[in-house]
Amino acid sequence: MGDRPRRVPIGFRYEPPSNAFGWVGRVLRRHPRATREINRSVAPFENLTKVLLFSCNMCGQCVLHETGLTCPMNCPKQNRDGPCGGVRMDGHCEVIPEMMCVWVKAERRSRLLPWRNDILRIQAPLDWRRRGTSAIINMFVDPFAEEEEA
């Protein structure tokens, strides 16, 4: 199994965190039952924190870093790979006109951050099986790798 890239659609690949934390992923991959229990324990706290700070929707694949600390899952169309093309001239959403487009907010906020160019990264499609799971744990171990390899 190791730290090899995982199969993800459309040419994207799972990249484990830096080597400094690589051991965490290796331990979690060796103990899937413990990983599920840790996920079950961590997810509620992660949810509470992220909901309060970022209006998070707990997709299990957090991209706040790449989207100016704006959760793209707040988009009514749940586009996590960029704006839908229906953004109004004033920057508001076409579906909910009184709401500022999530991607307009993300672009504006990302300009203020030291990692401002990360918004230009193409995001992988959302894996809906991860919804409600901890993005922190999922960052260290791909929870569905075994299913894909079978």
- The H-and-E topology, N to C, reads as HHHHH
Structure annotation, total helices: 5
Report the structural category: mainly alpha
* Rg from alpha-carbon coordinates: 17 Å
| Content of β-strand | under 5%
Helical fraction: 25-40%
Largest sheet: none
Number of domains: 2
Q: What is the molecular shape?
A: elongated
Count all strands and give the number: 0
Averaging pLDDT over every residue, what do you get? 81
**Stretches with pLDDT under 50, minimum 5 residues:** 1-14
Distance between the termini: 13 Å
Give keywords.
about 150 residues; disordered N terminus; 5 helices; 2 domains; mainly alpha
How does this model look, in words?
The chain has 150 residues and is mostly helical. It contains five helices and no strands. The chain has helices spanning 22-30, 32-54, 102-110, 135-140, 145-149. It is elongated, with a radius of gyration of 17 Å. The model is unreliable at 1-14 (pLDDT under 50).
Task: Compile the SSE list and pairings.
Elements: H1 22-30, H2 32-54, H3 102-110, H4 135-140, H5 145-149
Give a nutshell description of this structure.
With 150 residues, the protein is an all-alpha fold. It has helices spanning 22-30, 32-54, 102-110, 135-140, 145-149.
